[in-house]
Amino acid sequence: MANNGFEQPVFKIQSDEMQRLLDALRQNGYRTLGPIIKDEAIVYDEISTVGDLPRGWTDEQGPASYRLVKRNDDAYFGFNVPAQSWKKFLYPSERELFRVRRDSRVQSPSENRESSLKYAFIGVRPCELKAISIQDRVFTSTEYKDESYSGIRHGLFIVAVNCTSSGDDCFCASMKTGPMAKRHFDLSLTEVIAPSEHYFLVEHGNELGASFVRGLNATEASEAEMNVAGDLIERAGKQTRRIEIDRTPELLSARLDHPEWNVVAKKCLTCGNCTLVCPTCFCSTVEDTTDLIGSFATRRRKWDSCFTLDFAKVAGGNFRMTSRSRYRQWVTHKLSTWVEQFGTLGCVGCGRCITWCPVGIDIISEVQKITET
Amino acid sequence: MSGSSKIKKPKVAVFKFASCDGCQLSLLDAEDELLEVTDSIQIAFFPEVSRRMLKGPYDLGIVEGSITTPHDVEHIRDIRKSCGILATIGACATAGGIQSLRNWKDIKDFVHIVYASPEYISTLDRSMPIGSFVHVDHELRGCPINKYQLVELISSLLNGRKPQIPTHSVCVTCKEKGTTCVLVARGIPCLGPVTQTGCGAICPSFNRGCYGCYGPMETPNTSSLSSRFLELGLTQHEILLAFRNFNAYAEPFRRESESHEK
Ligand code: SF4
Ligand code: SF4
Ligand code: SF4
Ligand code: SF4
């Protein structure tokens, strides 16, 4: 590996080859999903042509603030993390688990529904790749395997895009999750806009990815081109936001009575936005309903959040009545107890919980206040 | 609580107090769904729909509207005695409704302006929710209510199970639907974080802030949201008006609006 971060072989395609890649994926039965502009934000949705991509747009993010801004070039991927993560496709907000008819046995209308899905995610950021691998561990590596998630995951094709700029709420560098994707992708792109040409460097992560590269008008990338791309990525990693990941898990669990938890609880709306936008949060609830005449009952899984009151309601009471205890659960789970539970941190530094908190509560400054004073 | 036992062919009664009838219309709007159960429930009393008025007791009483007169107070107490389960529907019944705006004024002034012979008018000085006078088993929020929540409530009672009526924020629904937050992406003041869900987060999906039709959510932190509204440029008076709405007299919203009075 050269010190520009790339691993050979690296190919180069002109930017207009993107359409050929989308076409090839679609011809191979993939539903192509990627970034589009909708309702004043960049969101992931169905895409079919490169014209759907937010070409020439970027975003400015800060605590409780997100604004679209025009770029002065034609970059396809010149923005930061979109509003909601890929979680909404891999782990949809609601899914029917089964239906029972009064007059027969359990039926599972949704059985294996996902095993035939073939999604291609276009533009997965390195932090999001890491988030997917964290959710993989949660949903597929224990004896309680989530069949729905595993089904979608199995058919998934990932086109990663390395970050060549980063947003004001990003802190992937200190979390060691970005700004460059190292594995877990089928293809990985780095977009370069040079004075005379607009191109992508392409890496493949496996033979499936390689087969798609062979279908493109690709040439071998030169050392100089890799250096240019490597510099862009390195610059994206110069972030002012940081979390000290080596010490944080231990310090947080030792400071469960820190007075800052009370201060932040006064501000927290317990609205749940932070957990719902977080690409690794996986909590759900199960709801049973019936039709009016009681001929069948339906069980559904729905997203839940440790900020809702029902979340900690058990026989005999609720063990997290205060917003202080709920905010503390969220932060300590992400950055401390997750390690005991799954062997990694539960945060990848995407910054979404900071941007999309309606009152701009900033997980980094909270962690700093709690661990450093 | 009576929600866990199944009732055979329940007798249902629908009562109205001070209100616009919109929530009863939601009940009528659910006719397709409710047609299924015409054999399993008996509509015993529903003056809006039928002249047939059977005497109580009733298994389920559905109450729309707020209490505004001394006669209403007597009436709701009688209703409570005659109903096994009492469910209130809509912002009037659950919080006092838009008419509770009068609670901040002297009612005599209105009576003199509106009526030629004010001496015939007997009214309370405030518009109050049903729950201020009698015990309520279930409440459906909203101005108006959501007919699917109404069907869900009836379905749960018929089948002896817990109704699935979430009490968390509207924000959860925005995220479930993938609606981009208007507060964050556009700087539009939105009451969603302190408002109970139930409407399907309609306003944010049309690029509007939530107006708070479903009243306070389970753990509303109104003062923190107001501080954010100030940062977004709202005046104290605008914040007062935002909370003084269909659910103005719901306790957390009432306290919040009063804290912005000069
Ligand atoms: S905790 Fe916040 S910054 Fe970390 S992964 Fe979740 S949303 Fe992103
Ligand atoms: S932070 Fe809360 S919502 Fe997220 S995974 Fe942990 S307990 Fe679940
Ligand atoms: S931290 Fe922010 S987004 Fe999370 S629950 Fe509190 S107010 Fe909502
Ligand atoms: S638009 Fe309003 S209700 Fe929706 S997430 Fe934002 S603050 Fe919450």
Describe this structure in words.
The complex is a heterodimer of chains A (373) and B (262). Chain A has two domains: 11-93 and 111-236, no CATH class; 248-281 and 305-372, no CATH class. Chain A contains 13 helices and 16 strands. Chain A has helices at residues 17-27, 87-90, 126-140, 147-154, 172-175, 207-214, 223-236, 248-254, 260-267, 273-277, 323-342, 352-355, 363-372; strands at 11-14, 31-38, 41-46, 57-62, 65-70, 94-101, 106-107, 119-124, 157-161, 187-193, 198-204, 219-220, 284-290, 296-303, 313-314, 317-318. In chain A, the strands form four sheets. Chain A has an eight-stranded mixed sheet, sandwiched between helices. A four-stranded antiparallel sheet of chain A has the order 7-6-14-13, with no helix packed on it. A two-stranded antiparallel ribbon of chain A has the order 4-5. With 262 residues, chain B is of the alpha/beta class. Chain B has helices spanning 22-29, 31-35, 70-82, 90-95, 107-114, 147-158, 170-177, 182-186, 202-205, 222-231, 236-243, 251-258, and strands at residues 11-16, 42-45, 58-64, 83-89, 138-140. A five-stranded parallel sheet of chain B has the order 2-1-3-4-5. The longest helix of chain B is centred in the N-terminal third of the chain and has 13 residues, at 70-82. The mean pLDDT of chain B is 94. The interface between A and B is large, with 45 and 45 residues. The structure holds iron/sulfur cluster (4 copies). One iron/sulfur cluster binds at residues 170-171, 174, 181-183, 190, 192-193, 201, 204, 210 of chain B.
Outline of the structure:
With 373 residues, chain A is α+β, with helices and mostly antiparallel strands. Chain A has helices at residues 17-27, 87-90, 126-140, 147-154, 172-175, 207-214, 223-236, 248-254, 260-267, 273-277, 323-342, 352-355, 363-372; strands spanning 11-14, 31-38, 41-46, 57-62, 65-70, 94-101, 106-107, 119-124, 157-161, 187-193, 198-204, 219-220, 284-290, 296-303, 313-314, 317-318.
